[in-house]
Amino acid sequence: MTVVDSGPAEAVSPVGRRVFVGMIGLGVAGIVFGSKVRSAIGSALSPVTESDPTGLTALLPTTGRFRFYSVVGFSPEPPADGYRLRVDGLVEEQLELDLGELGRMRQVELVKDFQCVTGWRVEDVPWKGVLVRDLLESAGVIDGATHVVFHSFDGVYTESLDLDQARRDDVIVALEMLGAAVSRDHGGPARLYVAPMYGYKSLKWLGRIEVVEQAAEGYWEARGYDTDAWIGGSNGRDDEPV
Ligand SMILES: Nc1nc2c(c(=O)[nH]1)N[C@H]1C(S)=C(S)[C@@H](COP(=O)(O)O)O[C@H]1N2
Ligand SMILES: [Mo]
Predict the structure, then answer these.
(1) Which ligand has the nearest atom to the CA of 205?
(2) Taking CA atoms, which of 19, 68, 95, 173 is between 20 and 30 Å from 27?
(3) Upstream peptide bond of 61 is cis (omega within 30 degrees of 0)
(4) For range 195-218, the mean pLDDT
(5) Which atom of ligand 1 is nearest to the CA of 186?
(6) What distance in Å separates the CA atoms of residue 4 and residue 220, rounded to the nearest whole number?
(7) Which of 62, 202, 219 to mutate to test the pocket of ligand 1 (most atoms within 8 A of CB)?
(8) Amino acid 234: pLDDT
(9) Looking at the structure, do residues 96 and 55 belong to the same domain, yes or no?
(10) How far is the CA of 86 from the centre of ligand 2 (A)?
(11) Residues 143 and 43 in one domain
């Protein structure tokens, strides 16, 4: 059984944080921490992963551990005929790359924090993978394109970046995280890692990168979160400690 949080926290809308803190005051957090489900799932995940069935732990002062988020409620399996990352849309040449091909591209390593908009942060996480910029370069972006949409093979979650953001040195398709191949729960075999932005931009189970000519809302953007999710500078939280 997999019990997961629904994402950044549907209850924590950019304006709803105080209401939510109130819920914790009413003892909801105690239920979360008392949950046997939580410990059962926690032990099934890596030592630095902590599951968060409700998302309510997100506002408590725990740091240093990943939570497990999936809006579909489980970790999807890659397609039966093998994982491929597709790069298409407004490109000169559509790409379909398997893991071997991705692994033979230039790999960049980053050691950077991962921070969810709900407040939890894991510091100094090692990441390794391919720059989105290099993928765009290989495919050849056609004039007039402005944005990139990322699609998860969970069939539901999407994200987007404008081309300047997507071409940054700290935006990668991660094949490794925490010193090993990205685990299935963390979005393996390949996930996006957008270092300067909140965790919801770092789409898991990446299946397709689509180059488009207009801004597109992602899963959480359609639910009120900022498209430009700069850490410390979005979702109206600049003045709140995280
Ligand atoms: N496909 C998919 N990607 C996703 C999510 C999700 O629910 N589905 N949650 C996002 C959020 S809100 C965060 S904080 C991170 C959490 O990554 P983790 O599950 O590896 O801790 O994944 C992001 N990417
Ligand atoms: Mo998040």
Answers:
(1) 1
(2) 68
(3) no
(4) 97
(5) 20
(6) 16
(7) 202
(8) 86
(9) no
(10) 25
(11) no
Ligand found nearest the CA of 194: 1
Q: Kindly give the pairing relationship between strand 180-181 and strand 191-194.
A: unpaired
Nearest CA to ligand 1 atom 16: 69
Do both 95 and 36 map to the same domain?
no
Per-residue pLDDT reduced to its tens digit, 154-189: 999 999 999 999 999 999 999 999 999 999 999 999
* Closest ligand to the CA of 223: 1
Token readout for 62 is: 């725990």
If you measure from the C-alpha of residue 142 to the centroid of ligand 1, how many angstroms do you get, rounded to a whole number? 30
Whether 51 is covered by a domain: the verdict is: yes
How far is the CA of 222 from the CAs of 20, 103, 193, 194, 227, in angstroms?
A: 20, 33, 20, 19, 9
Name residues contacting ligand 1 (CB within 6 A): 7-8, 66-71, 116, 152, 154, 157, 186-187, 199-200, 202-205
Q: Which domain holds residue 213?
A: 85-223
So what's the pLDDT on residue 80?
85
Q: Is the pLDDT of residue 43 over 60?
A: no
What is the token pair recorded at 180?
Answer: 């090993």
Read off the pLDDT band of 58 (50, 70, 90): very low
Ligand 1 center–CA 8 separation, angstroms: 8
Q: Whose CA is nearest to atom 20 of ligand 1?
A: 186
User: Are 120 and 188 in the same domain?
Assistant: yes
